[in-house]
Design a protein that fits this description.
Blueprint: H1 3-19, H2 21-25, H3 34-68, H4 72-88, H5 91-95, H6 104-117, H7 123-135, H8 139-150, H9 154-177, H10 184-191, H11 193-210
Length: 235
């Protein structure tokens, strides 16, 4: 299921253009030196991916705890259902509740720190911009973190979020070179793909939890459990 992180990142980068695009376009990069600009962009992306991987570690540990509790199948199904509900429930319903209120001061400080970094032209500032950008609230990052939990392992959770971040790089880099490469009508059409892909990934997690004995997609129930003792066949 690791590959779903890259696919989700690739598709959600279309959403990122609207949400994080302005940040990418304002990056203090050297437009007169192509080679340096490329290194500066990679530094920014490295900061974002570092933030995603840190979150992947935390949520991967959470998933591992649930895995050791023997909830691997149920967890995979619940995560899949949550992904689908995230798409089906209208955004205005979520807007009624300020989920970030408990950490509002933290987010406000994060944005203030982020804004101050744009005044600098160092690689450290670009890395910091990417790092802080990665920790800002984002619905599709939350969806990816559902996947990190379902990996049920802290290392694989980190890997899942790395692939998610890696998948966002092509589109987020392109916007800094050609700001008008996607018109609004085209962008709106592509945005419709995002919920479809999210639902498909959610269905994959549900199938995985059901243990339908489908290779690489839904392993059998036996392979989903860790046995305390080896099970050997005897003639």
């Amino acid at each position: 299921m690791l590959y779903s992180g890259f696919i989700l990142g690739l598709i959600s980068s279309l959403h990122c253009i609207g949400m994080c695009g302005p940040i990418a376009m304002m990056l203090p990069v050297d437009h007169g030196n192509p080679a340096k600009k490329t290194m500066q962009l990679l530094t920014y992306h490295l900061g974002r991916i570092t933030a995603y991987m840190t979150l992947g570690l935390v949520f991967g540990l959470l998933g591992k705890g649930l895995y050791l509790a023997g909830l691997q199948q149920q967890l995979s199904i619940i995560i899949g259902v949550m992904m689908i509900l995230f798409v089906l429930i209208p955004e205005k319903v979520f807007a009624r509740y300020n989920f970030s209120k408990p950490v509002y001061k933290f987010i406000s400080a994060l944005k203030t720190k982020l804004g101050s970094q744009f005044k600098k032209r160092t690689f450290k500032a670009l890395f910091t911009i990417g790092l802080l950008n990665g920790f800002l609230p984002c619905g599709l990052v939350y969806v990816a973190l559902f996947g990190a939990i379902a990996m049920q392992n802290e290392i694989i959770g980190v890997g899942y979020m790395f692939l998610y971040g890696f998948g966002t790089i092509p589109m987020m880099s392109m916007i800094t070179y050609v700001s008008g490469f996607l018109t609004v009508p085209v962008r709106n059409k592509i945005q419709k793909i995002i919920p479809i892909v999210t639902v498909c990934i959610g269905m994959l997690f549900i199938m995985r939890g059901l243990g339908l004995d489908i290779p690489f997609v839904s392993p059998s129930n036996m392979s989903l459990f860790v046995q305390p003792d080896a099970i050997c066949k005897t003639e």
